[in-house]
Design brief:
- Helices cover 12% and strands 54% of the residues.
- It has five helices and 19 strands.
- Helix 1 packs across helix 3.
Length: 336
């Protein structure tokens, strides 16, 4: 089939589904689909402090392959504490053992808590935290952030087959993000300290097969003026790059519209420590993102995919920004 015909067909279908309405209750609850082998419900919170401290936590509930978990805490006077052992049995909602995410107010407040052991350079530390995420920006539905024309072109360029459309399910996710702050206390071996972090949270659900991802980029954070910023890019091994993103302005959400390809800014190295990116959003303004990475935390996903979770600081059009700069790649596609 000619590529332009495929493009017209896909674009027409995407335009019919351009706006999605998902209730707050649906956004804030855990989703399961036992009929899909690789179904995944993933929730994530980060926290970035003015003093260089940071916090990363993620729970992923999966139909098969076992649940995933991330938990990292860093303080400059202590070092990096990591959860290496499984936190425990899955409970109702977003619970694995003593690692818990509890919604206190739909779309507004979450409690993030833990009581257990974290590893510090091979030594076990007793850690307890009780944190409250409070929203400062609207929830962003990434379906509404979709760039219809670019998405249609990426799908049209693929080699259509039964296998292609089966793999395409991996790109059809429900994905939501929100900016805010994370405030509370962290106790490490009876040393209690108060924290006040800028924070981004993320909730997505759908099929996820890490081996089908070629690479991705996720840049997100809170600006000094209280607004949130995001650029998200994924390249699959069966299809080209899909891109979305947003910048908030009060209760308004401006969606990403013009952007570079990943290969233009992250080829050598594929995980750059600093970047200057020019982007344009739906408010027709051009935004310049500058950042420099301070450190990163590595993750190995099912032995098939590597994620480097960068902790960075920078500016957007001169406004200071604390952000996570996440770069992921499939090792079989890169000679590193």
């Amino acid at each position: 089939m000619l590529e332009w015909i495929k493009y017209k067909i896909i674009k027409k279908k995407l335009l019919k589904k351009a706006i999605e309405h998902t209730t707050l209750k649906e956004i804030e609850e855990k989703h399961k689909n036992p009929n899909e082998d690789l179904f995944n419900d993933s929730s994530y919170f980060n926290g970035l402090g003015d003093d260089g401290s940071f916090f990363l936590v993620r729970q992923s509930f999966r139909t098969s392959r076992g649940n995933e978990f991330w938990l990292e805490l860093f303080f400059s006077d202590i070092g990096l504490l990591r959860l290496k052992n499984h936190p425990g049995k899955e409970g109702d909602g977003f619970h694995q053992g003593n690692l818990k995410f509890d919604c206190l107010q739909l779309g507004e407040k979450w409690n993030v808590s833990f009581n257990g052991e974290l590893d510090l350079n091979g030594k076990s530390k007793k850690v307890e935290f009780d944190l409250i995420f409070s929203a400062k920006t609207p929830i962003v539905n990434f379906h509404n952030a979709m760039i219809v024309d670019a998405t249609a072109r990426a799908i049209a360029k693929g080699k259509w087959s039964k296998s292609f459309f089966e793999k395409l399910k991996d790109s059809k996710k429900h994905h939501f993000e929100q900016g805010g702050n994370l405030i509370g206390s962290v106790t490490i071996d009876q040393d209690k300290r108060d924290v006040n972090w800028s924070s981004m949270r993320d909730h997505s659900w759908g099929i996820r097969k890490w081996s089908g991802w070629k690479r991705h980029v996720w840049l997100c954070g809170m600006m000094e003026n209280g607004q949130s910023f995001n650029v998200s890019m994924v390249e699959y091994d069966y299809m080209g790059q899909l891109t979305a993103g947003f910048i908030t302005e009060g209760n308004q959400i401006h969606y990403l519209r013009e952007f570079p390809l990943i290969t233009e800014f992250a080829s050598n190295p594929i995980h750059p420590e600093k970047l200057n990116l020019r982007l344009k959003y739906s408010d027709n303004k051009e935004y310049l993102l500058n950042y420099k990475q301070k450190t990163f935390v590595p993750y190995n996903m099912d032995g098939e995919y590597i994620i480097n979770e960068g902790i960075s600081s920078g500016t957007v059009n001169g406004i200071k920004l604390k952000l996570v700069t996440e770069f992921g790649f499939n090792p079989k596609h890169y000679d590193l």
